[in-house]
């Protein structure tokens, strides 16, 4: 894998998938974007156009289709959780075969769904930390000074996932391997849940949250730390707080952007996942429960 160009499918070439697909194509790999007819047609015609302070501004020529029609080396699943069930029809298990499947979705529940649907494939847990958005079909705006991927796999250099990770690093992405899948997924969720819930609830960037609503932020961090430890993953509230204090104050969550655009949100995949884990382990999370309740009520108005 480290010397031969790969064929990689991207299911859902939005902000995250479009950025990864564009970087892979620019680095010489064959990329097939799987999307609806209009989006697929636009990408086939115009390519993936990326605007990034980190990676520059470029257009990458890729293929596009509404459904996978041949086996690939790997596929990134980068749709929103709310669109996952319908999107998987574009990725037939019998066509995919034994390729590597890397979901970069928020939450936890998608892992069981994918492993049941693609038993022959290597479904590798993944997370990404990035702020990127699709502003038009095939047009990707990457606004964070980072794009960091973690993959749940051992670091043996001759393993397929380790080789795949090396290919991804060559594109410029920051890629790390984590042997403890549970710790990796909860490390992401323990940051994402407070970030998404609070920026969406207060309709503001994280800078406003950490100054004007700091007491609430501290309460949420204490609660998410307790849940994370209860499921068997390491967590520290002060380390989380340092992360929140370090990121650019203008950063907003994708959940917040979805609310502003009137789109379905990943509230259940993010906040709901925390509440279900808290209930299963008898951990009290009153602040998180209130935020989820308030956001649910707001969405139903």
UniProtKB/TrEMBL annotation:
The record's catalysed reaction(s) read: (R)-pantoate + NADP(+) = 2-dehydropantoate + NADPH + H(+)
**Residue ranges annotated for the Ketopantoate reductase C-terminal domain, each copy included:** 183-293
An example Gene Ontology CC term for this record: cytoplasm
A Gene Ontology biological process in which this protein takes part is: pantothenate biosynthetic process
Q: What class of enzyme is it?
A: oxidoreductase
InterPro entries the record matches: 6-PGluconate_DH-like_C_sf, 6PGD_dom2, ApbA, KPA_reductase, KPR-Related, KPR_N, NAD(P)-bd_dom_sf
- Tell me the pathway: Cofactor biosynthesis; (R)-pantothenate biosynthesis; (R)-pantoate from 3-methyl-2-oxobutanoate: step 2/2
Tell me which residues make up the Ketopantoate reductase N-terminal domain.
Answer: 8-154
- Report the EC code(s) recorded for this entry: 1.1.1.169
What GO molecular function terms would the record report?
2-dehydropantoate 2-reductase activity
Keywords, alphabetical:
NADP, Oxidoreductase, Pantothenate biosynthesis
| Gene3D superfamilies named among the record's database cross-references | N-(1-d-carboxylethyl)-l-norvaline Dehydrogenase, domain 2, NAD(P)-binding Rossmann-like Domain
Keyword match Oxidoreductase = yes
Q: What does this protein do?
A: Catalyzes the NADPH-dependent reduction of ketopantoate into pantoic acid.
Q: What family is this? A: Belongs to the ketopantoate reductase family.
Q: What is the protein name for this chain?
A: 2-dehydropantoate 2-reductase
């Amino acid at each position: 894998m480290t010397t031969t160009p790969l064929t990689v499918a991207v299911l859902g070439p939005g902000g995250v998938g479009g950025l990864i697909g564009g970087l892979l194509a620019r680095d010489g790999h064959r990329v097939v974007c799987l999307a609806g007819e209009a989006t697929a047609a636009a990408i086939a015609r115009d390519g993936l156009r990326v605007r990034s302070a980190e990676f520059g501004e470029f257009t990458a020529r890729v293929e596009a289709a509404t459904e996978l029609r041949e086996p690939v080396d790997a596929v990134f699943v980068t749709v929103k959780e709310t669109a996952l069930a319908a999107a998987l029809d574009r990725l037939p298990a019998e066509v995919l075969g034994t390729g590597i499947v890397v979901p970069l979705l928020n939450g936890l529940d998608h892992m069981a769904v994918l492993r049941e649907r693609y038993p022959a494939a290597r479904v590798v847990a993944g997370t990404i930390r990035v702020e990127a958005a699709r502003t038009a079909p095939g047009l990707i705006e990457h606004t964070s000074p980072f794009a960091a991927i973690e993959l749940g796999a051992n670091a043996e250099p001759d393993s397929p996932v380790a080789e795949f990770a090396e290919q991804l690093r060559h594109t410029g992405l920051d890629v790390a391997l984590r042997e403890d899948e549970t710790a990796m997924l909860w490390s992401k969720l323990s940051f994402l849940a407070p970030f998404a819930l609070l920026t969406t609830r207060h309709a503001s960037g994280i800078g406003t949250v950490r100054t004007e609503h700091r007491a609430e932020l501290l309460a949420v961090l204490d609660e998410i730390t307790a849940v994370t430890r209860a499921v068997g993953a390491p967590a520290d509230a002060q380390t989380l707080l340092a992360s929140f204090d370090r990121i650019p104050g203008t950063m907003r969550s994708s959940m917040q952007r979805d609310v502003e655009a009137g789109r379905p949100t990943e509230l259940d995949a993010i906040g709901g996942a925390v509440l279900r884990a808290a209930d299963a382990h008898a951990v009290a999370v009153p602040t998180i429960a209130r935020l989820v309740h308030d956001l649910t009520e707001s969405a139903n108005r």
